[in-house]
Amino acid sequence: MPYKYSEKKILILGIGLTGISCINFFLKKGAIPKIIDESKKPEYLEKIPKNIKYKLGGLEKKWILESDLIIISPGISSFKPILTEARMLGIEIISDIELFVREVKSPIISITGTNGKSTVATMVKEIAKKSGYKVYLIGNIGLPALNVLSKKADLYILELSSFQLENIFSLKSKIAVVLNINEDHLDRYPKGFKQYKKIKLSIYKNAEICLVNLKEKNCFFKNKQKKYITFGTSNSNYYIENIKGNNFLCHKKEKIIDTSQTLLYGYQNYENALVALAISDAMHFPRNIVKNVLKFFKNLPHRFQIVHKNNNISWINDSKSTNVSSTKIALKNIKTPGTIWLLLGGDKKSADFNILKNYLEQLKIKIYCFGKDGMNIAQICQKKSIYVKNLKDAITLISKQAKQDDVILLSPGCSSKDQFKNFEERGNLFIKLLKEIN
């Protein structure tokens, strides 16, 4: 039964690209929604059709409570008191992804996790494309989901954040995977990490095949009715085996890919490639295509990306590191006799950086903390840390001191929103600044 929206009072929260895609969706369905944005000057205001009523600068209580259906953008917390009140009154609150999955018939591969989502999703997209599939990558990356409804597709790959999963209820994935679950976005969830974890694991609910990471206890998921494929440990279906210093991606007892023969950098990207291999096998993509794509796949921009090397000094842009666990992963991937110069800071989102303390104290490292929570983070490892106002000040100081074999690592462990539009802008400034001094 197709969903009927024309007689509903529909409200969209958020005038971003997602919000605009929702307006266009409903207009095609014969419904005229209203839209609200908490900002007084949203970026895409001029894209709103003239017949759409909107309000700016806050959540209009009257509009919310008189609605039948509310579509919420991922940037707006589902746990605001006014939205809790709306739910208690029986008002349906969903995401654009929920609208999308109600409409599509083609299979869906759903990918979530605290870290690595974009890399795995992009790897699988490239493999599917080379295998002859008409495929779209949507969700937390790529196009707004509703924009591809009018296009023919054999397969959809959904990269899903916890923010999106909060309001998805009809997702039926052919394959679903949770890559990892570590502390992140604790400022978003009233019940803390337990709530964040539950939302992440909800991706498995109606999945046909569940890919489960046995290496991470937080990812444990068991349901007798489900088909499982495991990865991560030596007794999994898919695992990484180190043989004479080389890491091999393995399936059961078969060595599939020697990672030293790939362009991938960093152990976490070997793990990402392992998941892409597992998904590809479950989809029956040709193995020769899988191996070829993974062999030539390069780290995505802003994700542990070596952006400059001069006088044997390496500069690594890991601006996508927006949580503590991703910073620790990045540090573990650096092997150098020199000093690591770590750029750390931004909005820590209520995360506990003390979990890094013992690890940082063991390293030959100097830490430059910047941004909104930089001063607070600098207290954790005081003897090795210095607080500066911003990225530019940090790089100016580091560039005068870095020597041969040193590594300058931008892996902030924080959201960029305090000083930047997004993590891409932060990473691009890092690249621009280092080019100016080299």
From TrEMBL:
Protein name: UDP-N-acetylmuramoylalanine--D-glutamate ligase
A family per Pfam: Mur_ligase_M
Gene label: murD
EC number: 6.3.2.9
UniProt GO MF annotations: ATP binding; UDP-N-acetylmuramoylalanine-D-glutamate ligase activity
The keyword Signal appears for this protein: no
Name of the top EC class for this enzyme: ligase
Associated pathway: Cell wall biogenesis; peptidoglycan biosynthesis
Keywords attached to this entry: ATP-binding, Cell cycle, Cell division, Cell shape, Cell wall biogenesis/degradation, Cytoplasm, Ligase, Nucleotide-binding, Peptidoglycan synthesis
Residue ranges of domain Mur ligase central in the record: 111-279
Location of the protein in the cell: Cytoplasm
Functional summary from the UniProt entry: Cell wall formation. Catalyzes the addition of glutamate to the nucleotide precursor UDP-N-acetylmuramoyl-L-alanine (UMA).
InterPro entries: Mur-like_cat_sf, Mur_ligase_C, Mur_ligase_C_dom_sf, Mur_ligase_cen, MurD
NCBIfam families noted in UniProt: murD (TIGR01087)
GO BP term, pick one: cell wall organization
Amino acids binding ATP: 113-119
Domain Mur ligase C-terminal: 302-412
Taxonomic lineage from the root: Bacteria, Pseudomonadati, Pseudomonadota, Gammaproteobacteria, Enterobacterales
Cellular component, GO annotation: cytoplasm
Family: Belongs to the MurCDEF family.
Keyword Cell cycle: yes
UniProt main location, coarse: cytoplasm
PROSITE patterns: PROKAR_LIPOPROTEIN
